[in-house]
Amino acid sequence: MEQESIVHHQENTRNPEYNAGQIHGIGVWNAFSLEQVTLEFGNVLENSHIAAEPILHTPPRPVNSQAAMRARVHCYVTNQLSRALRTAFNFFGPNDHPHLTTVQFDVGSLARTPRRFTPTLAVFSAAMPDTVRPNRVPGLIKSSAQWSSGMIKNPLETVHITTFAKVNFDMRQHQTRYSFILTDRELVAVRRLDGYGNLELSHPVPWTAHGTADHPRMTILLALWYICLLAADEQGWRLA
């Protein structure tokens, strides 16, 4: 996926606060990879126990609405990811990753909501009150019928562009550089490069991906765990 220039946009009429013309470039976030996760956090992954993913053993819940998708996230992601984050922060010693602050993953309303625009999901500092703590990773839930990574192949696809305009708007509202789009088929992590609508996207991570200690793979839970730890970095998550 090369950096691409987005031109000749159709207007997004769903929300006047953001539109397709605000997205100027989309590239690949190559550093969002299993190799990079292992390089940065391999010690905690190798030497601490994180509960197994129930998604490997339980048939996925059917998804036919946004409410059903939120239920899937709550069932398969939220509790598992919360335990994995607690394990990581408890594992880190005083000299390990000294710039990280403890963060939590939950629904978007548990973080500050500027101008009442509330993202679906949030990553926030556990030590701050919900009325003031920024959403460091405003996450967007979509159904695969609404959006898929396959749309990236068509840079002029209106739904594709306006989805990233929404994500970019949320990141700007919360002055962060990280976000993600999660559907019933896949996750795509998003990094904002600047204030001019230039974004990078990870390679899609399917719900069906799973790994073992001997044969690790990037999974939905590992990808979310990694982006939470990136957002925990007090020196790296903010982007005005």
Percent of residues in helices comes to 25-40%
Distance between the termini: 26 Å
- State the total count of DSSP E strands: 9
Put simply, the count of helices is: 4
Whole-number mean pLDDT: 87
Strand content: 15-25%
Q: What structural category characterises the helix and strand content?
A: alpha+beta
Task: Tell me briefly what this model is.
Helices cover 28% and strands 15% of the residues. The chain is built from 4 helices and 9 strands.
Task: Give an overview in words.
The protein is an alpha+beta fold and 240 residues long. 28% of the residues lie in helices and 15% in strands. It has four helices and nine strands. The chain has helices at 34-47, 66-91, 158-173, 220-231; strands at 4-5, 25-28, 103-107, 121-125, 139-141, 178-182, 186-192, 198-201, 205-206. A hairpin with a 3-residue loop joins strand 6 and strand 7 (186-192). Helix 2 (66-91) crosses helix 4. The longest helix has 26 residues, at 66-91.
Using brief descriptors, characterize the structure shown.
240 residues; alpha+beta; two-stranded antiparallel ribbon; 4 helices; globular; disordered N terminus
Task: Lay out the secondary structure.
Blueprint: E1 4-5, E2 25-28, H1 34-47, H2 66-91, E3 103-107, E4 121-125, E5 139-141, H3 158-173, E6 178-182, E7 186-192, E8 198-201, E9 205-206, H4 220-231
Parallel strand pairs: 2-8, 5-6
Antiparallel strand pairs: 1-2, 3-4, 6-7, 7-8, 7-9
